[in-house]
Amino acid sequence: MKKFGIIIAIEEYSTQVLPELAKIEFAVNDANSIKTAFTDQLYVEEDELLFLTNEDANKASIEKKMQNIFARLTSEDELYFYYVGHGFNTKSQNRITCWDTDNSNLEETSLSLEEILLAPLKASKSKKGFIFIDSSAEELKSKNKMKSAASNLVEKEYSEFIRSTPGYSFFLSCYPGEKSFVSVQAKHGIWALQLLNALNGKDDAAIGKDNIISNLSLSKYLSAKIPQYITKTMFINDRQSPYAVVDLSNSTPLIAFESDDEEESKNVEIQFTQYILSREQHIPFKNLEAFNKAKHKIPKDHSSFASKLATELAQDEFLKKEIESLFDNARRTLRLKNSNTVKDPEGGALHTEYFRYNISAQQSDNDFTEVTIRRELELRVPLNSFPMPIDEIFTEGFDTITFPIKGTLDVDALEDALYDLEDDNQGTFEQKDNVFSFFPKNIKGIDKVELSKNTLKIRFASSQTSVKEILDYTQQTLEIMATTLKNLLT
């Protein structure tokens, strides 16, 4: 069995073709780092790796050299494909641009992913691979007046391939109609940066069961991490929603990391100053005001298209309405300045100098016929520095507070510690899928405490719990669990 890699990156397009295609910032830097990850983490040999950037990534060269790779690919081999550059969808085909793509004749001078990638993979009968595409059509649409690609058409091509080859997974940096952003500080595309953090084992949140990054854990990680990164580091009135097309019934391993539990457990830290307050609401698709029986169908399984549909249906009823209302309230009470405020009703975001608030809608994890409306609040200043009572702004309340955990908890030590709390009649606990749930006694308002590899969550009995009550109840809970937590962190 061999592992093959294909990396294509176009940062600067040919100047001989006018009008010239827009530059893709840091594309080559992304590609070089991805190449290192392919060789060091995925063990792709240099002889089995095709690496093309800028002028080397012209149409003729890509076609010829990819054909050479597929001529060697067998049913026992694996393929890892990474592309960064402009891409678009036309006539139900996903297409990528080349260094010499003609902006005035896009279709004839670009490449069909079906023809250069998917069809050859089917012919090779290769059973496993990962496809990463960091691409946006926004620059092309603005210059060529292209119509926005329909997400169901874009996804259909990938979904049909997955049905015939379930060992393959597709990861895309953003939905059609969105942009793929870059970080000037990191000198990487944001999606590529988080993908690299996952591949290189720099973020435990990407690692799933048995210390393995799989198609499922990576999909969940990227879909959560990109919006979080943009929220915390960028003041932009826009959004980027990465998505994956994978076989949800098949957990395909990408990387298995060796675990050094003894060393990791010495560096565990619960970051109590970085908490996030949240609340979830679950609504059947059919009960959303925008759901139209003549136009929409209730999903029959989980898919990225269903999550996109959930966002679209909930936009007016929840996202826009709630952000506009919250903005009016916060502007009046906090005297917000426009220069320090980002309001994105369609994206469900309101970021101010005092807080970051996000509301999102996606297909529910536990029931594919339902939509989960999730609200998150992150304070940017200490509560005692707020210019007014915070609950006068956030009147709906929350039901969960989450603290990130840096490092990896010693599972055996955690289990022993929770048994001790149970023996002391402080509460009961249970374990499921590496999540430890502790149900404390005699603490008003607390439903349970959840400890996992990456987070400490405290869930409250009521979804209408005020911010002040949450912080008070949290303090009581942490006091009861203080000895347990102290032993785990030393």
Automatic annotation (TrEMBL):
This is Caspase domain-containing protein. The lineage of its organism: Bacteria, Pseudomonadati, Bdellovibrionota, Bacteriovoracia, Bacteriovoracales. It comes from Bacteriovorax antarcticus.
